[in-house]
User: What shape does this take?
Amino acid sequence: MIPRTAKAAVGRRILDAFRAAGAVEVAPDILLPADTLLDLYGEDIRARAYLTTDPIRGEVVLRPDFTVPVVQMHMAQGAEPARYCYLGEVFRKQDHGDTRPANPRENEFLQAGFELFSRDPEADAEVFALFHGILAPCRLSATMGDMDLLLDAVAGLPLSASRRAMLAHHIWRPKRFERLLDRFSAVEQPRHFAVNSAPWTGLRSQEEMEARIARLEAAAEGPPLDAAWRTRLHRLFSVAGPAPTALDELRILADHIPAIAEAVERLSARLDAITTRGIDPGSIRFDASHGRRTMEYYDGMTFSFTAEGRPDWPPVATGGRYDALTKVLGQGEAIPAVGGIIRPGLVAELEHAPC
Amino acid sequence: MLKLGLPSKGRLMEQSFDWFATRGIRLARTGSDREYAARAEGIEGLSLVLLSAGEIPRELAAGRIQLGVTGSDLIREKLAGWRSDVVELAPMGFGHADLVLGVPACWRDCETLDDFASIARDFRAAHGFRLRIATKYHRLVRAFLSDHEVADYQLVDSQGATEGTVANLTAEAIADITSTGETLRANHLKILPDALIHASQATLVANRRAIETGAIAPIVAHLGLPPHAA
Assistant: This one.
């Protein structure tokens, strides 16, 4: 067991590195209002967050994550560009389902984080290179993804706007996404819904239902998706390998999925900017589906650093771009934002047990 | 002395008595029928404890009782990581109840779980909050919906009269235990046929440590259960 003090010391060292990169240290509350977080993350976070009730503030939650309070703080008072860093505990319940593992994950652990609010096109590269530099002594594997590619590919499908929106909404839920893709790829029989005499009950209105029925009964959403599109999407989702090789593959794919061409060029520019910062792009694994397995708020670059010899560990560091989250929290006003966290506790363990 | 925990009230207790009686163990209440005491005859070393059905999973997991009768739904709902603490010895063939998802019967566009997922997304966009499902089975419902990749919903806690929450506008759908579906129908709700969350029945459950130490092997043999159950 690594003593808590040793983990905190590693955390402060990481914080110093973030400060040296120009970040201002902030210290968000530990007890946060629950409603925003619950609405944003849904039941995933409720299952994992420690909720409690305050007689005056209502439902509150022990900080499960720093990103939301930092974004809220910045949107309330910050000017761009802004760089923030923080160090503190987050709290997560670990419900493993039917069987408890021999080594359950921690319920409270430190996060050291860095968030950058900036319109600079090199912001992604800046954050990735900063994390890469701090973690270099740990010899971790770096994986990068890009939700932009996937979302642009879906946005470019020859489908009605509502169907494209539905696919984009479920991109993080692979089974549901595939079922929708199946449905949209087949000649769909219009559905008929039997009228019944049940009295109206509940908040959902009759108009909402009729609008949905009209959509489904008309089956007027255009012809089915050509089978080639499914193949192209699956090829895109399975692009994985050393970043330069993956980039070549993506360039070839862009001939068939023109909608991703811009995102591929942005990825190329990002990899160039990372190379300029002294990192060999061949050492980064690019996995097009990486972001589909992360929290739903990332909508651009995603990254994680994992310890190869510790398959049972969560990533030592994760991060990415989350412009859409700032839009939700800013009630329409969005700020380009990218950031990430490192778990000092895991770094401390790696340092005490050198591989 | 091994302790067997039985639900203290109603048909579940009676049916448990019958189940054990046909297997050569006579259980009976002692004293008045308001006193929560009982004894076992026909077997040595077994004492009987009458408990609220909802407390039996916790008592089993803690090892304060070694055997217990409770619903398979309560075991899964109340014990995180239940397989690490208890073992289901035998389904008992009574106390059947299904944990189902109920939606307003007037939602004629909602025939499947896929419809439900799509309605939840529309509802969230139209109303600015996630579609609410009232239930007391938080873990089972969440695990089911997560497994089926339904998003855009939230659970609201309801410890009773759950079927009334939709008409009271405190929820849009419910997840609750039903055996006949009558209460759902009476409240103008219908069951989603492809959203059976758990088919529950009364189950004989043992504490895992009591099995591993061999403590309950004689009773398992006496009941005629296959030894692999223990």
Remarks:
- DSSP finds 14 helices and twelve strands in chain A.
